[in-house]
Every structure is written in structure tokens, then in C-alpha cells.
Q: What sequence folds into this?
């Protein structure tokens, strides 16, 4: 099991979840992905869409300013 | 003409999330809209089909710049003026092709995915891309003129079957004719 990181703090629709989905598709089952994102649409969308796609959203935590971290397990 | 379509895809359950786009336009802005919808939907689990027809075929040409692609004198001439993805004009205020360059600069500088990045994402997300048999025939284009991700060459009835049970959107061109849009 490996942990990967993805920074989408500078991305906008639709690439926020598009990049998350493409990265998740490359991982092995059980692998973890830490996604760094900003408040608003990315923070609302990425955890929700990840759950809908059958991934486990283990944690959503505040990092600093308007940046948050979402921990997703494939 | 069926191309190399897997016929099993025609018998899918009607409740599967599906978005089918008819891309009639080769305009830069309309293509951004098409590929934004396609990638966003594909990322959240939709089956996405894009049916490229008429000017929309420019987006999937292997040769992305201006090139005499097509059969016959008129076909080659149209192919040259229509160009490919990199020579797509914006639908308003094109300014002889300056505006797409400005848009690309703005999109890069504001970290918004460029048209080329959206197309690459669509490929990575396995968006189904199809070319219109009738428009190809008019313009003298062949499947080999398109990127290999294009799954097949379709007629309208096959597209209707593919899009059955999902939502379908038509992305259209401007009605005006503008010879100076290059």
C-alpha cells in the first residue's frame, strides 16, 4: 500500500476532479491519495464525487488558509 | 457504416448514466465546452459519447494545423481552410485568428485547462469519440485522417442507439459564414 499526493489547488473545473479521477485510476486497490484542494467547488465536489465513484474518503482536514486535504483510499 | 464498434455497447441498461454530445462546431470555444462537459461527466462515471460531424471533425484530425487533408481538390481546399484543433477559430471576435492565441494564453496564465489538455483528459478518461460517416464523405475524409482514439465511423441511427437512455446535447456552430476566421 502506497501513499500518493496530488495538488489541485491551482486547478479549475473540470480538471479538479478529472485529475483526481485519472490519478485514482492509476493506483492499486488499498493505495492512498492525499488531494490538496481549495475551498468552494473543489472541496464540495471532490469528496462527494470520490464517494459516488466507490472510493473511501477517509479524512477531510484543514491545512492552511483556504487549502484543505482530502485523504482518499482506492 | 459501423466502423469497428463493439456491438455489445448497444445493449446497455437504460439507467446507466450517459451523456452523448453531438459536436457540430469546430469553434475553439464550442470545443472547450464540448470537452469540458465530456471530461467532467466521464470523471464522475458517465459513459460519454461524442459524435463529431461537419466542422466538429476538425477537432479529431491527426494533423492539428492547416493541412490539405481530404480527397479531391475541393475536399483538400476545405480541409486547409477548416484546419485542425490548433487552428480552431473562436466563434466571436476571432480577429483573424489572434483571439484563440489570446484565449490559450489567458487559460494557461489562469490555470484553466487548455483545449489540448481537455482533449488529452478525454482520451485518458476513455471518452468514446465517433466520426460522422456522411460529413466525412462530403469532405473526403477517412478514418485514418483522425486520431486513433476515434472508435468508429457512425451514421445517425447507430448514434441514436448509442445515446439511447442518456442525455444528448447538440453543440452547434454559428450560423454566420466568415471566410476570414482563419
A:
Amino acid at each position: 500500500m502506497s501513499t500518493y499526493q496530488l495538488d489541485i489547488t491551482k486547478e479549475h473545473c473540470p480538471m479538479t476532479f478529472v485529475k483526481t479521477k485519472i490519478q485514482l485510476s492509476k493506483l492499486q486497490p488499498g493505495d492512498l491519495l492525499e488531494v490538496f484542494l481549495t475551498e468552494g467547488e473543489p472541496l464540495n465536489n471532490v469528496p462527494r464525487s470520490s464517494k459516488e465513484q466507490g472510493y473511501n474518503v477517509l479524512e477531510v482536514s484543514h491545512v492552511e488558509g483556504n487549502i484543505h486535504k482530502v485523504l482518499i483510499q482506492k | 457504416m459501423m466502423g469497428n464498434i463493439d456491438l455489445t455497447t448497444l445493449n446497455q441498461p437504460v439507467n446507466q448514466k450517459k451523456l452523448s454530445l453531438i459536436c457540430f462546431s469546430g469553434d475553439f470555444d464550442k470545443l472547450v465546452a464540448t470537452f469540458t462537459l465530456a471530461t467532467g461527466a466521464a470523471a464522475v462515471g458517465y459513459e460519454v459519447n461524442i459524435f463529431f460531424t461537419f466542422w466538429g471533425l476538425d477537432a479529431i484530425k491527426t494533423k492539428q494545423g492547416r493541412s490539405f487533408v481530404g480527397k479531391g481538390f475541393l475536399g483538400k481546399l476545405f480541409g486547409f481552410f477548416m484546419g485542425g484543433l490548433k487552428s480552431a477559430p473562436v466563434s466571436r471576435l476571432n480577429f483573424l485568428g489572434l483571439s484563440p492565441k489570446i484565449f490559450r494564453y489567458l487559460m494557461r496564465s489562469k490555470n484553466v485547462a487548455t483545449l489540448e489538455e481537455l482533449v488529452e483528459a478525454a482520451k485518458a478518461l476513455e471518452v468514446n469519440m465517433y466520426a460522422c460517416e456522411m460529413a466525412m464523405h462530403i469532405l473526403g475524409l477517412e478514418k485514418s485522417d483522425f486520431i486513433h482514439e476515434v472508435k468508429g465511423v457512425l451514421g445517425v441511427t447507430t448514434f441514436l442507439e448509442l445515446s439511447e437512455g442518456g442525455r444528448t446535447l447538440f453543440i452547434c456552430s454559428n450560423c454566420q459564414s466568415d471566410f476570414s476566421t482563419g
